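Quick look at the format.
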Amino acid sequence: MNVTDNERGEGEKTTHSVTDKEILDGSGSVQENSAEVNTTKMPDDVEPVDGGTKPRGRFMGFLGLVLGLAGLAAAGYLYYLLIYQNPQAAVDARLASVESLVQAQRRELKNLLDDQQANLKTFAGEQRQERDAAAERLLEAVNQLASQAPPSRREWKVAEVAYLLRIANHRLLMERDAEGAMQLLMAADAILQELDDFSLFQVRAQLADEILALRNVESNDVQGLFLRLEAVKSELTVQRLQLPTFAEAEPVAAGESPGPWTALVEELGGYLRFRRFDGASVKPLLAPEEATYLELNLRLMLERAQLAALRREQIIFEQSLSTAAEWMAAYLDTEDRGISRAIDELNVLSAIELDQPLPDISGSLMALKLLGES
């Protein structure tokens, strides 16, 4: 190495030539082969530039080199022990590290999957709610369109059948007209047969049972009964009141002569007569001017019987006819043929049974309603 120093323009040139060759032998000692130093004496007031730091830097570099070689040797020794002396331990260590890495990755993956499942469940719930809301809106829209659309031919026919069934139930319950109710049910069954819809099978089955039940009911001719009572009322226009009768005198036995007292009693008996009626009350006869009130009362009683016949009220019907027959027998001339025929007709009519048990025919209407709701 060559070093040349110039001191501030004055002084002498100093040439320092040093050649060092250091060889590191096997024992680690340093040998100096050759050294050649040319030194020129410097003045006393001039100090060397790096004379004190160079040996120290060398020492630190040498120390670093030694430490590096020691670390490299230690690493090589450990590698030798792991690979050549105990390969299974190296494999186990490698497997342990790999397994720990796999476990960590698995835990991370499981946490990620749990988060994804939670997110999927939340998303599925939101989608389900939106789907239900959309289905409700769609159903509402379809129902609105269906309500606005004109009814089809089948709907018209089913509505007509429902109307006939309601009228039949009303006819049977309110008017007790079994014949009319049966005709209405048969008309409804004919419409269902024309539709030829298998879904109406249950309704037709109920109709068949109800029609058969109405046929088994003994129907009374209410119209004929009403007219027969009208004929009885026509007999009241030519009515005759009951006339008073006199009791005949008891015949006197022939060949007997009455005594004085007997003759006196018979003489007085011509002016006053007493008769005994055991267990029977004697009603006074009506005056001729009271016949109008009797006719009005009889007509009112017969009209009451007619109304009871229309309503199928058996008790009121029987009471009205029996009361009218008693009044006619008590106050009218029963020897008159018209009056006697009227009394006999009232007795025959009172034996007619109006209040008969009626079947239930509401099953077909209920089945039709259930079919419409479904």
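Next, a different chain entirely:
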Amino acid sequence: MREIRDKLCELTKAYDEQLLLYRQIQEVGSGEQELIRDGHLDRLLEVLRKKEALLTQAGEFEQRIQSLQNQLVVHFDLSTFSLPQLRLVAPVYYQEELETLEAAVSKLLPVLEALENQERDNEACLNKYLVASQGPKTKRAQIGLAGRAYGKR
């Protein structure tokens, strides 16, 4: 009984720590669009490196979370990890830990959604910047070709 309670608490702690990392990632990525718009690609690369390091840490938490979930799946004889199913099969003396776990997950979901939106917006901004930055080069190339076609260099 104590071992399972510890696993539930450890899982909650892992989600809480992962939440802190995702908030850091969100904070680091919040200035990306401004860097892109201002053409500060060198600083953008620094930001992306920081985010990559944080994402690596988040991935390590994900592995730990997956391991703990698998242990709970085996213990409670579930087909997959699911908080609603876990609530149904877990004895009543685990309910407090399950409530805490659900609270941790419910805090994590909106941050993940916001992070996903931020990443989508940053990518769209970068794509727009790339298209815009290629435009003048293409026009210059066309002007150069037109000039050569008319015998000018």
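The chain has one domain: 2-149.

See the schema section for token definitions.
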